[in-house]
């Protein structure tokens, strides 16, 4: 019974992710064609062949179409599966690369385009900072649970700041260099963090 429930949940999550991706794809096309500020939720919904109310079930506001994704559950699940005999940084690095392997080339292109818009639209930068704060708290809780500490532990917070900084830096680098293999780039950057710097 549990296996069936997990399969149903898995199918539901995949369907949700597919719908989210479709909405984002149409939104990005409209943002390219008529600009972020000129595009309305109603236009996005019409392009995606959904109702505005369905749009708001997936995204609380227009800016969330650029800030929301379905990758956090992949990261959490992979992190929790990492063996106990490796360092927390190794576990995080493995989890990130595993989660990245589930992202298609088209989805990566969407990620890049979303990042470019976040960088260029001032109000999106502020919203992105709030979203980033939530992501950092999620990582802190993941790490704290693994090592048996509190999420506000100084070392946990330092770890979260380091890996988040690497991820942000590489996302911007990828936005400017779309020909690069993003998963490999991120893996290399995290490996440098793991090995220390010679700078």
UniProtKB/TrEMBL annotation:
Residues 40-59 bind DNA. Keywords: DNA-binding, Transcription, Transcription regulation. The keyword Glycoprotein does not apply. Signal peptide: none annotated. It comes from the Bacteria. The keyword DNA-binding applies. Residues 17-77 form the HTH tetR-type domain. SUPFAM superfamilies: Homeodomain-like. This is TetR family transcriptional regulator.
